[in-house]
Amino acid sequence: MRDGAALLADLRAGLGAFRGRLSADAGMDKITWFRVGGPADVLAMPADEDDLALLMAAIPRNVPVTVVGIGSNLLVRDGGVPGIVVRLSAKGFGAVERVSETRLSAGTACPDKRLAAAALDAGLAGFHFYHGIPGSVGGALRMNAGANGTETCDRVVEVHAVDREGHKHVLSQQEMGYAYRHSSASKDLVFTRAIFEGEPGDPAEIQARMDEVQHHRETVQPVKEKTGGSTFKNPDGGSAWKEVDAAGCRGLMVGGAQMSEMHCNFMINTGHATACDLETLGETVRKRVRDTSGTTLQWEIKRIGEFADGQVVRPFLNADG
């Protein structure tokens, strides 16, 4: 059995002047938008980038580290998350500011929607798509989030990060290794902030595009439900929701988990779902889609942690897909 309190005590002993917050056996269900999942052994919230560097340098290499954002695109398994979960706070990592005529600097805890609003205030076009993405800048950087024909890689200039040894790095856009919903940057890097570039635009036109994004999201997505956004990535040349619908999975339920009737690429917690229900539903949908059309859907929802005792989710093909 894992002992979060003992891990916390060991961590504190080597941290010295850490200014952030640390807690043992922290409930991850309070963080994720699905509102499910077991506890983190230790949840760490550093005060700023220097504090994060101090924390990372103090964590033994044999202790796993998991970085989470605002929990919008995250499914935490019912057995919880071993080791240290690092969550960057809005206070320390949420600032967004204009740094040149065409550039913005945004911390990785800044909500995507706030980045879009800051770009509007600065009269910078090219950021409207963030208005409809329910996540933070850190997640957008890691997964190359995009919508409405624009992706994060189209706006990023450089990314600041801290590695497992506490060393700071600055990565260029090319060094992020972007592809569709993917970055090949080392998983050991914790992104702290990024510089984005737009182009001068008419605020009225920018606002109109943001309004279009908001209207689309409110009319076709279950934004008032406990959901994590898009469940599966779009296959090459296709749409995930069309594959799910064609396989007869719109409204499909496993326990308290359901593929939304409104937008069938969204999983929702109807009120009493477990993480196991949600992951089993996703794998069931993947199998039905493969059986129906031959298409293998890949997860867009990030799944972390361990299953609770007695739980089994048999992944269709592999655990990573």
From TrEMBL:
List its EC numbers: 1.3.1.98
UniProt pathway: Cell wall biogenesis; peptidoglycan biosynthesis
Q: What is its main location?
A: cytoplasm
- What keywords would UniProt list here? Cell cycle, Cell division, Cell shape, Cell wall biogenesis/degradation, Cytoplasm, FAD, Flavoprotein, NADP, Oxidoreductase, Peptidoglycan synthesis
Cofactor(s) for this protein? FAD
The active-site annotation reads 181, 230 (proton donor), 300
GO molecular function per UniProt: UDP-N-acetylmuramate dehydrogenase activity
Quote the subcellular location field of this record: Cytoplasm
Keyword Cell wall biogenesis/degradation annotated: yes
EC category name:
oxidoreductase
Name the chemical reaction catalysed here. UDP-N-acetyl-alpha-D-muramate + NADP(+) = UDP-N-acetyl-3-O-(1-carboxyvinyl)-alpha-D-glucosamine + NADPH + H(+)
Query: What family classification does the UniProt entry report for this protein?
Result: Belongs to the MurB family.
Q: What does this protein do?
A: Cell wall formation.
Q: What is this protein called?
A: UDP-N-acetylenolpyruvoylglucosamine reductase
Name the species this protein comes from: Fulvimarina uroteuthidis
Its organism's taxonomic lineage begins at: Bacteria, Pseudomonadati, Pseudomonadota, Alphaproteobacteria, Hyphomicrobiales
Whichever gene encodes this chain, its name is: murB
